[in-house]
Amino acid sequence: VQRFLNWAASEKLTPSKVLPATETTLCNYAATFAGHTAGGTARAHISAIKGWTIHKGQPWFGGECLNSVLNGVERRAPPSSFRTPRVPVKESHLELLYAHMDLDGDDGKELAIVAAAAMMFYGQLRAGEVLPDSSDLSCYNPREHPIVSDLGEPNDQGTCSLRLPSTKTSRNRGESASIASQESIACPIIATERHIKFNHLGPGDPLFAYRDQQDTLHCLTCSNVVDRCNEIWGPSDIPKISGHCFRIGGTTHYLCRGVPPDVVKALGHWKSDTFLTYWRDLDTLASIHLHRFHAQENYCSHLYVNTL
């Protein structure tokens, strides 16, 4: 908002053209982003002005003309404004993590880290929905992050349900994620059960809390997981990852194993086609799904011939 006000002052606009801003004013301001920033950045600036305007009790005049200008800004975005796609975590990365961590010692934090990493990967979970920003136990909010009792018992197929109290798309209504057992050494269910038992967690404790050497309980944070993973993976020339890399890694993992995209989308609670922008290893995915398509066509042709 301050950037907008500074721009308005430099343009010597009268107060009546600033609050509320006319659509002409908004279009002229939006055009200043052309060739300099990504379209999403320009839209975020305009959105901030809209929120400020409404908060001040004034009408909002942004319409089709403004949207056209923003589309033009997006088309003229320079290459430098686009963020390099984040590298997905892979199953082999998790196995490397397991091999280099002290899981047979007396470090409860290590067990919590591998459990959280496996859960986020195989459950396609957003890091912020299961891990808090602070390690302070008193700051943990069970209405925002899961506690031990939110993790259900495995069913006959080895899948358990994890209740997420608050999610990016469902807010405080929450959602339930399906966590399936895996044959990999990094099975999320086995890792989490082992972590809960070792750290002596009760039903009301944070799902990924751990005990230090003094038996004091701490909350595992996203930074704890990401920093430890980068520390171990760095020497193997694995690019640095962020918390979101576990989610997009899990999505790519299932797609590369032939799980239908609509099933992966449902399991990952992807609410829009943003899901498509996070696909990685597209060459492999194309090969897998085209092969399945041709196999189905050949099978259907075979059935048709046999019915003649």
Automatic annotation (TrEMBL):
Gene Ontology molecular-function annotations: DNA binding
Gene3D superfamilies membership: Intergrase catalytic core
GO biological process, one term: DNA integration
Key words, A-Z: DNA recombination
InterPro entries assigned: DNA_brk_join_enz, Integrase-like_cat_sf, Phage_Integrase-like_Recomb
PANTHER family noted in UniProt: P CELL-TYPE AGGLUTINATION PROTEIN MAP4-LIKE-RELATED, PHAGE_INTEGRASE DOMAIN-CONTAINING PROTEIN
Name of this chain's protein: DNA breaking-rejoining enzyme
Organism, as annotated: Gymnopus androsaceus JB14
